[in-house]
Input
Amino acid sequence: MLLLWSAVGCTSNALPDSIWPPQDFELVVEEVHVESGAAHVVRRFRAQADGVVTYATSSRAVVDATTGTALPVFERLSVYRLVPTSIRALARRIDRCGILELDRVQGERGVVDGPSLVLSWQAFGSRQVITARGRVHGAMAQVLAIVMEHLPTGEAFDLPELAQRSVVPVLRGVPVPRSDAAGALNACRELLVDRPEDRALLLDGFALACDLGRRSVAEELLAKWVQITAAERRQQEMFPEGEPRLTAAVLERLLPPAR
Output
């Protein structure tokens, strides 16, 4: 499968020149399910400053038997690029919801079971991470509705309040996600050509390669991840604050057998 690529635009009118989005802009929303005490990411929307959006779902993970660390296998993927006016509108609308002022826990605090959403926002050097469970209201519900307007047709996040909302897509021509692990791996590798130090892409490609038994590709992606995270991992060793979530040793144990 070739890279699922399409330039798509908003149905709204063009916006004037703006500082939005800044170069460091990134918006990620992950849907997390907990099974047998382990958290698994089953859906992810990711938008970046250049307008590139990846939307992916996962039905399985590669798991380290020693630590229980799991990497989702995003075998169902859609990749598209928002035109400048569309990515600008997305960033500005969410900023106007007061994303940086929202509490970091949203929804029903007593809810333990069921899916949760983790939203990560980065812009102008500021970062916000919000976890939502159960029914969400107010500004958080508005933020998530804006994100869902930018999903492929028929796709949605699984929270009770969101299921009741009537969301009208604002984009045209968004490609439908395809269930094709090999194609998703190829798409990750194509995207890495222009963003070789993208850690999320490296890990997504690594998990897909492990799931497919593509050891040489997995080793190549792992080597790149080890290289670009070297300084961060050295700092963790000097100033440990608990066991780091990911280590080279953990990822090496996920490698498929050599053929």
The mean pLDDT is 88. The longest helix spans residues 181-194.
